[in-house]
Automatic annotation (TrEMBL):
PANTHER family the UniProt entry points to: CHROMATE REDUCTASE, NAD(P)H-DEPENDENT FMN REDUCTASE LOT6
Highest taxon of the lineage: Bacteria
Pfam families: FMN_red
GO MF annotations, alphabetized: FMN binding; oxidoreductase activity
Organism lineage string: Bacteria, Pseudomonadati, Pseudomonadota, Betaproteobacteria, Burkholderiales
Protein name, per record: NAD(P)H-dependent oxidoreductase
Gene3D superfamilies linked: 3.40.50.360
Residue ranges occupied by any NADPH-dependent FMN reductase-like domain in the UniProt entry: 6-162
Family annotation (SUPFAM superfamilies): Flavoproteins
Alphabetized InterPro entries for the sequence: Flavoprotein-like_sf, FMN_Rdtase-like_dom, NAD(P)H-dep_reductase
Protein species of origin: Ramlibacter agri
GO cellular component term, pick one: cytosol
Length: 198
């Protein structure tokens, strides 16, 4: 089988983002397990806040198409997000709301066709005691019900994330690292099984 490809999407890309740090740690783990990885910066897609009037006048922005193409090229998607007031970040929700509006084109399927049956893994990080768990649980429902993605049941919320990494961005706690490894490994196994059946 060809090398599996993993698309990693942080839900926060601000400077010093703990979730970007966790995303990169997960990428190193995936690469050690033989996968090819890509980090997608949702902010770089320059998507406006979803507005039906914008869609009617200008169509779906190019950034949404870029997101669709990145998902199509990947065997699995790993979303790594904090929570804002107990909910997923607007950066994630807005990007996928735009994706859901994209119709099929000659060279690609519609947005919702691109996400259907795509293996999905979830991680979160927060300085708080719950580690972003509430947002991750909302996202599980969102991605499964609205986008038809295959969300793996194994997930991990990294609590006290502001104390969790060393100067190189590696997880200091062995148990936390093992949890992230388990999520990544399980996701890649699911992706491999889906790819074999395709």
């Amino acid at each position: 089988m060809d090398k599996l490809s993993l698309l990693v999407i942080p839900g926060s890309v601000r400077q010093g983002s703990l979730n970007c740090t966790l995303a990169r740690a997960a990428m190193r783990i995936a690469e050690a397990q033989g996968a090819a990885t890509r980090l997608l910066d949702l902010r770089a897609l320059e998507l406006p806040l979803y507005d039906g009037d914008i869609e009617a006048k200008q169509g779906v922005p190019a950034g949404a198409v870029e997101l669709i193409e990145a998902i199509m090229q990947a065997d699995a998607v790993l979303v790594v997000t904090p929570e804002y007031n107990g909910f997923p970040t607007p950066l994630v929700i807005n990007a996928f709301d735009w994706l859901s509006r994209a119709p099929a084109a000659a060279s690609r399927p519609a947005g919702l066709q691109a996400t259907a049956n795509k293996p999905l893994g979830l991680l979160s990080a927060s300085p708080g005691a719950l580690g972003g768990l509430r947002a991750m649980n909302y996202l599980r429902q969102y991605f499964q019900m609205a986008f038809g993605m295959l969300a793996h049941p194994r997930q991990f919320a990294l609590s006290r994330a502001n104390e969790a990494f060393d100067a190189e961005g590696k997880l200091k706690d062995d148990k936390a690292r093992q949890q992230v490894e388990a999520v990544v490994q399980s996701l890649l196994q699911l992706a491999g099984a889906v790819k074999t059946k395709a």
